[in-house]
């Protein structure tokens, strides 16, 4: 009687490599297939269809809400190759700009995140073609350097597709020479423009560390990148962001609406707020670092002499007389600096009715934009009746109380 | 009408080829022109005691082969052929077969009983030949029948039971059959031939006896008869009786309790005093009990359910007496047991059983075995030393690491010394024990290993010396090195420990592979297999130089096989084996070196040469392709990427050969996998070959001959092709999509109660999703509208899968991914499609809550895509 088939190999050297080779091949193929599909899923967004926001001021009429603007394909890879002013113009429009918090949004504790904003230079960091470039808000270049971001250095994993690139929204923090990433716009070729903040932060937190971008600087990774702690904007989270420790100097708080997409330009779905205890720069200073007696604003001169904020649609603060324009040789599109005089700002029905403006001159040439409405108002209230942390906490608590009462009732 | 065919049957066995061929031709013509007449003539020939044994024997064989075949296709064909035969012919054939059972020529009645069973296997499930069982039983009950007829009848009953399912007989028939069989087994049966036939018949009838085993009285009686037969005077009867006990151990484990005392006595007496053939079955009984208990332990369910069979702890209870019994067997080695792979003796069976016992009871076995080891391991006779070592090696799996590690640590040096024992059996078993130790107690990745930086040098020193020993010892040493290396796979920094020895290890293995004293190529392939594992597990950043040097050495070895002189088919087989091993090694090296950017150029530099070599290896065979060379090609395509294009034209014909190799389905499956590699390497440059490839793949899918396991990879491959050639896949849509849809319908109707089918169903579903994913992504930028009409079907399929609780994680991942692909590719078109898809939300939610990060990521992405599609206008 022959032995049981299962028994025979007990004392035989039971190594057979062939099956193992087959299995390992299959595993490799499955992995490669996953990678290929993964790449296909993300690469298709390489050709980003960003909305062209080159709207002329004339079009700002409050006509039909959200007129479909002519979409224009915008290829970041192309843009990354741009140099000089062209690049500046291109990138200057890509950052999402928070409005200033002038009143507390509804559902703050459920629909919003909060984080402590690092003090420093807001910039766009783009890695592509084996190099990494950071550009300031006005589009000018801050650094060009190798980094561990995907395709951020020549020595980087060369098997990575040349189409792979990243765009991060960062604040460069001088004291520790670190880029703090406050948002992720594109990652390894995948566009996150149309993804919610919730998703973008999830992706940011799960991807950035993997690449080694958070490691200490090295010859192929000149600057360190760091994520920041993002909290749910409840009592605890808000307190932590406001008063808790951070590895960087704080400059106010940032609030992100969880459902908002990344949207170039001003948005009310990301808000910035500050007070003296979480920022050194609550009230704007002049070029000498002094707080001027009167609040200063920068507005854009329109063709017809009106003075507009950078908002879209913009808010009109007043109108310059043609005589004055001719006399001072100002041109439409110029940015102009004004002081708000004793008359201050007058509101009616929550809308700006009149501003007592006093022309000071042209602002620093590095300025690319006029002030936004919310900034002007935030600065104005900061000088008069600031929105305090207590108000924010109270609005969270009042919601909680309402809920509690509901439950009791 | 039966024809006289004796002369042809005899001539067909003539040593004269011409005579033989002529006779065969005539018989074949007869068979083709008049099958019923032909079969009848054969049965008449078989039944006629006046005919020569030789012609009757061949008649029986041809008859059997006209009724049954191994391959399912052929079997079904023969069945239909028999069913179609005219009833009167069939009756005559069956009558003459039953008649043959009473033949005094033993060979004729034996053959007839087999043919009867073949016909029964066709007719009884169809509710035909209902008179067969009664007429057989009549042979047993009528007093005047000769013992030879009873013997043939019992044999026939046994074969019939073996052929048919227990559902084909009603309980009355089962009772009658069992009664007849058990009667024949009884001590009162004085004819030993009859008693043996009855015992063998019972073995086949046991599956039918479920109802009878549930009845205590009947069970007691059957068990008594078996136990009595286990003490019969004739060794064959005793062996057959123990075989029945082995079968009962697994079939009726749950009712064995009352009989265990008696069985223990029987088995231990048999092991100690009976012939080997009987003793082996006695040991096998205990091995089968271990199998049962291990399986129960593996599938241990919480105590709540009363449907699970009870675990009777037979091994645990018998342990104090069973273990000494098994240890005794270890001393009964054969002198030449390590020379011949076919040998199975009491010592091996005992050691195997001891290994199973250790796995069943764990720690408890250790204290019972160790005294035996300690007493015997230093004795002067080799049997004691070998048995002690074998006992030690056998209990290494099962007991806890805590229990084992002090003993293994203490014994390791002893074992290393024993590698220079004077006796080669001792060395053989010692090397095997070392390989078990490294397999089971050497896992630096999880923080435990008996191998330390301090003893590694000593261990390797001994192994590399012993690998020069006799071939059978060297083979076991290869095993030890294999597992030693394997431990360092993914072991992080500790894999560096092996680096200083790598060159020596590789050289020793190559030298071993080149040895010619092994007789066959087993030692050579063990050495190469071990080499592969060593290469795989080395720390590449430290060893790339060494591996880079190994590459040309192996290439030149493969080169040399091309000019081997091939005279006989034996030579060809040897060449094939050697090429398989060397292609395997090259495949492993290619994969290892191309896994890192720093070392990939090493492969790319010699890619042309490797490619040429592989093509030459392919050319060594005319009709089949070399599986290993095919695998290696895939690895190379992956490494070279787009550069593979220039080899494609040459390679293509072999790829085609592989793709239509239905018989060796492994080769076909591997070729399908390689198509995927090529697609990813060449991207749209694969386009010129796609018509051909798709034709083969579609043909494969519609073939009923091809093993089903190849079908899922083919669907995945559709995805690979679509992803590579993008919009150009449009011309295959009309062919591929219906296949995918009908396969998804097959999935819907699959029987998911069978574990194997669950597994296959999961593979198939995942692969269909992968096909869709590839096509959707491939079309995304241009021809996505082609997929719009197919989207509802896909969604339905996803829904079906989403609602199935037996889907595995891989299927879930693929389902969520394809959902995202659908949204990604079709954009706002999905709005209406997704409107009522509650399951999407549920599926996404389930995935987002998963612990599997990859799944969560895919789901988040899919959710993002769906959200984007809904927020997009248009």
Structure class of chain A: alpha+beta
Tally of separate domains of chain A:
2
**Unreliable segments of 5+ consecutive residues of chain A:** 43-75, 156-162, 405-409
Topology of chain A as a string of helices (H) and strands (E): HEEHHEHEEEEEEEHEEHEEEEEHEEHH
Structural class of chain B comes to mainly alpha
Spatial extent as radius of gyration of chain B? 32 Å
> Within the CATH hierarchy, at the fold level, what is the topology of the largest domain in chain A?
D-amino Acid Aminotransferase, Chain A, domain 1
Distance between the termini of chain A: 82 Å
Largest sheet of chain A: 7 strands, mixed
Any idea what the CATH architecture of the domain at 400-553 in chain B is? Alpha Horseshoe
User: What is the second-level CATH architecture of the largest domain in chain A?
Assistant: 2-Layer Sandwich
Shape of chain B: globular
- Which CATH class of the largest domain in chain A? Alpha Beta
CATH topology assignment of the domain at 400-553 in chain B = Leucine-rich Repeat Variant
Which runs of chain B of at least 5 residues are low in confidence (pLDDT < 50)?
Answer: none
Account of the protein in words:
The complex is a heterodimer of chains A (409) and B (874). By secondary structure, chain A is an alpha+beta fold. Chain A has 2 domains: 17-49 and 79-273, DNA ligase/mRNA capping enzyme (D-amino Acid Aminotransferase, Chain A, domain 1); 296-384, no CATH class. Chain A has helices spanning 17-43, 76-81, 84-92, 108-111, 197-211, 235-243, 322-328, 373-384, 389-408; strands at residues 47-48, 74-75, 96-100, 112-118, 121-128, 131-136, 141-145, 166-173, 178-187, 190-191, 224-227, 231-232, 250-257, 265-273, 296-301, 306-308, 316-319, 335-348, 351-361. In chain A, strands 5, 6, 7, 8, 9, 10 and 11 form a 7-stranded mixed β-sheet that branches. A 5-stranded mixed β-sheet of chain A has the order 3-14-13-4-12. A 5-stranded antiparallel β-sheet of chain A has the order 17-16-15-18-19, with no helix packed on it. In chain A, helix 6 runs antiparallel to helix 9 (389-408). By secondary structure, chain B is an all-alpha fold. Among the domains of chain B are: 400-553, Leucine-rich Repeat Variant, CATH 1.25.10; 566-643, no CATH class. Chain B is built from 41 helices and 2 strands. Chain B is globular, with a radius of gyration of 32 Å. The mean pLDDT of chain B is 91.
